[in-house]
């Protein structure tokens, strides 16, 4: 599996997981809508998404020596 295909697959999995969470937890969608209106809550959402991206892409990559 080449790196480009792996990255596309990870993004697709991330989109599916987010969609599933919104369907399972409709309150999460309400939180995102509120966060878009209130900037102070929106920064927490950005930090949570950044942490998720770091966990997916940062921890999954091999260390270069």
Give a quick precis of the structure.
The chain contains three helices and no strands.
Map the helices and strands:
Blueprint: H1 3-24, H2 26-37, H3 39-58
Helix pairs in contact: 1-2, 2-3
Walk me through this protein's architecture.
The protein contains 3 helices and no strands. It has one domain. The two termini are about 20 Å apart. It is flat, with a radius of gyration of 15 Å. Helix 1 packs across helix 2. With about 60 residues, it is an all-alpha fold. The mean pLDDT is about 80.
Number of strands: 0
Give, in order, the helices and strands: HHH
Number of helices: 3
Hey, roughly how much beta strand do the residues contain? under 5%
Q: Please tell me how large the radius of gyration is.
A: 15 Å
Helical proportion, percent range: over 70%
Give the overall shape, derived from the CA principal axes.
flat
Structural class: mainly alpha
Main sheet record: none
* Residue-averaged pLDDT: 81
Whole-number tally of structural domains: 1
Termini gap: 22 Å
**Which regions are unreliable across 5 or more consecutive residues at pLDDT < 50?**
none
Descriptors for this entry?
single chain, mainly alpha
């Amino acid at each position: 599996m080449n790196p480009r295909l792996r990255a596309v697959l990870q993004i697709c999995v991330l989109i599916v997981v987010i969609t599933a969470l919104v369907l399972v937890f409709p309150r999460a969608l309400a939180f995102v809508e509120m966060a878009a209106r209130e900037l102070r809550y929106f920064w927490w959402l950005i930090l949570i998404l950044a942490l998720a991206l770091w966990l997916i892409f940062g921890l999954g990559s091999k260390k270069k020596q």
